[in-house]
Design a protein that fits this description.
Blueprint: H1 12-24, H2 29-43
């Protein structure tokens, strides 16, 4: 499924607060906004049934192989 791009204008103080929260949760600002939107949709009983899971972000998990030297 292709992801939708959206232009979002935020108050700079709101953006800064989201950026701090995202950094604390080891997420990008974009991932933090999507996480918060999904959480609020679920809380309001409005989460779409066909929405895919949040994409896994960051470094992929280690899978055996070479050992560090």
């Amino acid at each position: 499924m292709e992801r939708q791009s959206v232009l979002l204008r935020l108050d700079p103080a709101v953006h800064a607060a989201i950026a701090r929260w995202a950094r604390d949760d080891l997420r990008s600002v974009n991932a933090q906004i999507e996480y918060l939107l999904r959480r609020e949709l679920t809380a309001a009983g409005r989460a779409p049934e066909r929405a895919g899971p949040l994409p896994r972000r960051g470094r992929p998990p280690k899978t055996g192989g070479l050992s560090p030297q």
